[in-house]
Automatic annotation (TrEMBL):
Requisite cofactors: FAD
Active site: R216, S266 (proton donor), E336
Gene Ontology MF terms in the entry: FAD binding; UDP-N-acetylmuramate dehydrogenase activity
Superkingdom classification of source: Bacteria
PANTHER family: UDP-N-ACETYLENOLPYRUVOYLGLUCOSAMINE REDUCTASE
Record function comment: Cell wall formation.
Keywords noted in UniProt: Cell cycle, Cell division, Cell shape, Cell wall biogenesis/degradation, Cytoplasm, FAD, Flavoprotein, NADP, Oxidoreductase, Peptidoglycan synthesis
GO CC annotation, single: cytosol
Protein name stated in the entry: UDP-N-acetylenolpyruvoylglucosamine reductase
Gene Ontology BP, a term: cell division
Family membership noted in the UniProt record: Belongs to the MurB family.
Family annotation (HAMAP family): MurB (MF_00037)
PROSITE patterns the record matches: FAD_PCMH
The species this protein was found in: Adlercreutzia mucosicola
Length: 341
């Protein structure tokens, strides 16, 4: 399918104002790095998400999901295909009876923590300073200060192949919607592994017990499901106590982390039994630069963009840090930041 025909079909689904061609990803990532996305697409409803995904699969067009862009390194040459941005149109936060909070994939962790505080619900304070969305938090099992997303989550609303919903161990997952229009959600080409040709995508509330969360990983990540939202179970507490905990964590974060400079948070995962920042500091890498990418002098676990760093600069710096740390300590550092190719 030629590009113009494909982009016309996406424009028909989401409306012209929600399809941006050649949109610089640097404007949508906290690293402030990244060339143009061929098509940045902002669906307005779950149905539109499903329709765009189906259209991409049918046409063999690559698809990426972007939340707040706080944990990605986007390539300098840009990204071909569709970058699906789930932010403002999926940013609702609803406080439900029984301490439940239901948030859209595009709601920021900060917005969810604020809503919980206002409702006198505790448990999400740990995430109040994590600069991402609920979608990113579910995929990565976001964690900070001894808390992690999996601790408080009841279910994750996802777009999954119909066969997975039917037989893939969804347990008591509610099958809430089926997208059946041939041109939009079914009859998609290139079935995923284990998926029957021509089947559709369905929206399912995946129970936490089926989410296979680990340290910065999840079933949603491994299976490539789009996260549409999540429901959290929080507990009653006084708003003053909740606010005090959020303020304390914000202070600790600002004191230790280089929040004033663009970055994508921790560059590397914590290797078992070690702290990445300490290993990097001990290997003498603090302040090390490639171009305008620098190992932060405030927290060695962060690569920061001190001017006009490129993705190539960051990748070269990551490789050099990995080499020096391996040489100094024998430990291999694995990137936590998603390196988009
Ligand atoms: N502890 C901390 O202080 C920090 C933690 N982080 C972590 O990174 C997360 C980043 O969130 P955010 O900035 O919104 O994410 P990003 O926009 O940075 O996207 C990160 C990755 O998550 C996937 N993704 C994002 N949203 C969705 C979705 N709705 N459905 C499916 N996949 C999705 C994408 O996968 P794909 O590439 O496969 O398309 C993408 O590569 C945070 O929630 C947190 O876990 C980040 C910074 C600091
Ligand atoms: C920033 C992120 O998450 C952060 C999260 O905010 C904080 C707070 O809970 O704990 C993790 O950082 P971290 O492992 O660097 O934790 P910190 O408490 O800052 O540091 C751990 C230890 O390393 C030492 N340290 C840190 C930095 C440094 O330059 N030198 C050093 O010696 C600290 O003194 C401390 O003893 C998460 N990172 C990972 C990879 O797990 C992110 O995911 O992007």
């Amino acid at each position: 399918m030629v590009d113009a025909t494909f982009s016309d079909s996406i424009r028909t689904i989401v409306g012209a104002e929600n399809l941006l061609a050649d949109e610089p990803l640097a404007a949508h990532t906290t690293f402030r790095i990244g060339g143009p996305a061929q098509w940045l697409v902002r669906p307005r409803t779950e149905y539109e998400v499903a329709a765009v995904c189906a259209a991409c699969r049918q046409a063999g067009v690559p698809l990426r999901i972007l939340g707040a862009g706080s944990n990605v390194l986007a390539p300098d040459e840009g990204l071909p295909g569709v970058t699906l941005q789930l932010t403002d149109n999926f940013a609702t936060v609803d406080v439900l009876p029984g301490g439940l909070v239901r948030a859209g994939a595009g709601a920021t962790n900060a917005a969810v923590a604020e809503a919980a505080w206002e409702a006198g619900l505790a448990g999400y304070e740990f995430a109040s300073g994590i600069p991402g969305t609920i979608g990113g938090a579910a995929i990565m099992n976001a964690g900070a200060y001894e808390g992690q997303f999996s601790d408080v989550t009841v279910s994750v609303r996802c777009l999954v192949p119909a066969s997975t919903a039917a037989t893939g161990g969804m347990g008591a997952a509610e099958r809430v919607e089926q997208c059946e229009t041939a041109a939009e959600c079914t009859g998609v080409g290139g079935p995923a592994e284990g998926e029957k040709q021509g089947e559709g995508l369905v929206v399912v509330d995946v129970p936490a017990s089926e989410a296979a969360w680990g340290y910065r990983t999840s079933r949603m990540m491994h299976e490539g499901w789009v996260v549409l939202g999540a429901t959290l179970q929080l507990r009653p507490d006084s708003p003053a106590a909740i606010r005090a905990r959020m303020d304390d964590l914000a202070r600790r974060r600002a004191e230790k982390q280089p929040l004033e400079v663009p970055s994508a948070g921790s560059t590397f995962k914590r290797p078992e039994g070690y702290f990445a920042g300490k290993l990097i500091q001990d290997a003498g890498c603090q302040g090390l630069c490639v171009g305008d990418a620098q190992v932060s002098t405030k927290h060695a676990g962060f690569v920061v963009n001190i001017g006009n760093a490129t993705a190539a600069d960051v990748l070269a710096l990551i490789a050099e840090v990995q080499r020096r740390v391996r040489e100094a300590s024998g430990v291999s550092l694995a990137p936590e930041v998603r390196l988009w190719q």
